[in-house]
Q: What sequence folds into this?
């Protein structure tokens, strides 16, 4: 039964697409498509949504009315940094699926800035795309993505999962991947292990705090960089290795030039690490460059494990041990989920976790054996 909605001033507020979706028992995206005659919705489901809208006395706004029936056979992709090989490869996977479906993909680059992401989504909606794959800059502040769903445009998240958005997401287990990489170094006997990575601009610089127990704690919402730090700390704790904030060096995404400086700060510590985990592909290159710039040998002077199995990691001497993920598969699966939604799949959003693999090469050498506690 329809319920009465009241606003802050005591009057009945205008029903939203989300209200209609709850009344009809469907997703917000499906309700938006049914109300706007946009995309693919079965006749029975459309009638169900329209009946719910009538019970709530819902009327669409001007933007919703402008969405055309039949669609434009285009989808959008909003990436964080298309110059990063991860997002460039993911885009290829998305485009391959789109082309098979008879669609074209429009690309937008957010530069890891939420304001640019919002503007990009707005432009894509104005171009009447039929769905969006987005690597979100924020996992809580996602009102612009919820708005897209209300207009009947499905949204699929890539690389990050949002607990407040009912949408499919395609991710890896970043914490487990980092834990495996650091555990590899610990099994080789290293105890003083550094970490180098990029973090998102929205993340607090105070990511690390020492708990009363002496354990290093990581603070922040789940996202790749934070979860990889958590994996590092978990592995160090498991093996009884000491953790210290000075061993975890990071800079903001988009300031890659600063990574070499942070890597050099690790090397300049009074007691420098014997091994370093570079937790993303930008950090991997920055660490390798800094170590070689000092004339140090890998792994003779310092061991390292990197992230992402890019071509260059096999061409250097020594070839690098890395955590490998498959951005091509991630982009492909994200696009497949998007087209399932465009075709009317109304099931709850699913978190799809793809596997990673630690590829052991020659950049990490053994130290005295370390035993877990």
A:
């Amino acid at each position: 039964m329809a319920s009465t909605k009241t606003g802050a001033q005591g009057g009945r507020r205008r029903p939203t697409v989300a209200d209609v979706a709850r009344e009809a028992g469907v997703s917000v995206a499906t309700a938006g498509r049914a109300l706007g005659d946009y995309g693919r919705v079965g006749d029975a489901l459309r009638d169900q949504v329209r009946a719910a809208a009538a019970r709530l006395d819902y009327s669409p706004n001007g933007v919703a009315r402008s969405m055309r029936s039949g669609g434009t056979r285009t989808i959008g992709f909003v990436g964080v940094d298309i110059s990063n090989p991860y997002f460039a490869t993911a885009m290829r996977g998305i485009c391959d699926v789109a082309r098979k479906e008879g669609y074209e993909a429009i690309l937008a680059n957010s530069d890891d800035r939420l304001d640019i992401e919002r503007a990009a989504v707005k432009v894509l909606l104005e171009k009447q795309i039929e769905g969006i794959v987005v690597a979100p800059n924020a996992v809580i502040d996602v009102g612009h993505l919820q708005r897209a769903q209300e207009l009947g445009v499905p949204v699929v998240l890539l690389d990050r999962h949002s607990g407040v958005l009912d949408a499919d997401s395609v991710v890896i287990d970043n914490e487990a991947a980092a834990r495996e990489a650091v555990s590899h170094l610990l099994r080789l006997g290293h105890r003083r292990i550094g970490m180098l990575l990029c973090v998102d601009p929205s993340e607090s610089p105070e990511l690390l705090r020492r708990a009363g127990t002496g354990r290093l704690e990581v603070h922040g919402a789940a996202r790749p960089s934070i979860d990889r730090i958590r994996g590092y700390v978990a592995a160090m704790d498991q093996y009884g290795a000491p953790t210290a904030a000075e061993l975890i060096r990071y800079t903001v995404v988009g300031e890659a030039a600063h990574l070499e400086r942070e890597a050099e700060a690790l090397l300049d510590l009074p007691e420098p690490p014997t091994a370093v985990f570079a937790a993303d592909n930008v950090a991997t290159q920055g660490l390798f460059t800094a170590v070689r710039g000092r004339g140090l040998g890998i792994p003779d002077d310092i061991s390292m494990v990197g992230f992402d199995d890019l071509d260059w990691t096999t061409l250097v001497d020594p070839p690098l041990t890395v955590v490998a993920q498959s951005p091509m598969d991630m982009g492909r699966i994200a696009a497949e989920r998007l087209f399932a939604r465009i075709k009317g799949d109304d099931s709850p959003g699913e978190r799809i976790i793809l596997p990673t693999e630690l590829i052991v090469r020659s950049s990490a050498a053994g130290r005295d054996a370390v035993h877990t506690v």
Remarks:
- The two ends are 58 Å apart (CA to CA).
- The first strand starts at residue 74 and ends at 79.
- The chain has three domains: 15-53, 74-170+327-354, 174-325.
